[in-house]
Specification:
Elements (H helix, E strand, L loop, with lengths): L26 H12 L3 H16 L18 E6 L6 E6 L4 E5 L5 E5 L6 E6 L5 E6 L3 E6 L4 E7 L3 E6 L5 E6 L4 E5 L5 E4 L6 E6 L5 E6 L4 E5 L4 E6 L9 E6 L5 E6 L3 E6 L5 E6 L19
Antiparallel strand pairs: 1-2, 2-3, 3-4, 5-6, 6-7, 7-8, 9-10, 10-11, 11-12, 13-14, 14-15, 15-16, 17-18, 18-19, 19-20
Pfam families: WD40
Keywords: Repeat, WD repeat
Length: 300
């Protein structure tokens, strides 16, 4: 203990023990000293700063031919083009409305109002004459495109998606309770496809117009017969996804369906047999929680 100096004792440093002297009143010298201690050269520091400044100052590239700003200060959640006239689009937003607008001029044809929550799903009928809008609380409205008037509405439970039939005025909807509903528009005649508890996360009507494919929160995929309201095939257990199914697509003939999931896999399913013909494992990153949120077949 006697070798440790008291606070009042003079303390001296042997010049031979000094590695480097940093001038604290010289900001440039301080930076140089820090860079040297970190093993980073002044040139590398300057290059990094120049790169960051250039990235911040560079204008963002925008290759669009038109920017539509109808949903002011609100995120756009969904959008669709009219299948008959692609000069007409519909967008749904967090501002509790959908807008039907002209894609050439950016002008609004009409506002789809009356929703009291985020519009999460929109879509045109096969002939482009009707447009449906649905919000998170379960309110669905069907509008006549020509006049902008409501011809049918339904106020149900929390919705996940809506999907039009490919050849008839028939609307399909999936709910958070796992049920799937189907209506004839505008009569409102309804069929219900039994819920299983887990949310019906996504769904689509197949090209044959007789079946629909639905992906669920627990990773199960079902193919439903629209006439009998019964499940033809169920993909689950070791063949199914381990996490929620987020997206679906079918090939041109409808013989195959592709599904994407939170488990970072995409599966290709034979719709005739209900068998998984391929499982595609997507690359994961350690930094983020990844999932497959979009899939698609080439229709060439």
């Amino acid at each position: 203990m006697s070798d440790i100096p008291d606070e009042d004792d003079d303390f001296t440093i042997d010049p031979n023990d000094v590695v480097q002297v940093i001038e604290l009143d010289d900001s440039e010298g301080e930076m140089d000293g820090e860079s040297d201690l970190l093993g980073v050269s002044d040139e590398e520091n300057e290059n990094e700063m120049d790169t960051e400044e250039a990235a911040a100052a560079a204008p963002q590239r925008d290759d669009s031919i038109l920017t539509f700003i109808g949903h002011t200060n609100s995120s756009v959640i969904c959008t669709r083009l009219n299948p008959v006239d692609n000069n007409i689009a519909v967008t749904g937003s967090q501002d509790d409305q959908a807008l039907v607008w002209n894609t050439r001029e950016g002008s609004i044809y009409f506002q789809c109002t009356g929703h009291t929550d985020t519009v999460v799903s929109v879509g045109f009928s096969h002939d482009g004459k009707l447009v449906a809008t649905a919000d998170m609380k379960g309110l669905i409205k069907v509008w006549k495109v020509e006049t902008g008037t409501v011809i049918w509405s339904f106020d149900g439970t929390d919705l996940e998606w809506i999907q039009w039939h490919k050849a008839a005025p028939v609307l399909l909807a999936g709910t958070k309770e796992g049920e799937v509903w189907m209506w004839k528009i505008p009569s409102g005649d309804c069929k219900t496809f039994a819920g299983r508890g887990p949310s019906a996360q996504c769904g689509l009507i197949m090209p044959d117009g007789k079946t629909a494919c639905v992906g669920y929160e627990d990773g199960v995929v079902k193919i439903w017969d629209l006439k009998s309201s019964s499940a033809i095939h169920t993909v689950s257990d070791h063949e199914g996804h381990k996490e929620p199914v987020f997206c679906l697509d079918h090939n041109s003939s409808g013989s195959l369906v592709m599904t994407g999931s939170e488990d970072m896999t995409a599966k290709v399913i034979n719709t005739s047999t209900g068998k998984v013909v391929s499982t595609l494992a997507c690359q994961k990153t350690e930094e983020d929680e990844d999932s497959v949120e979009a899939v698609g077949f080439s229709h060439l």
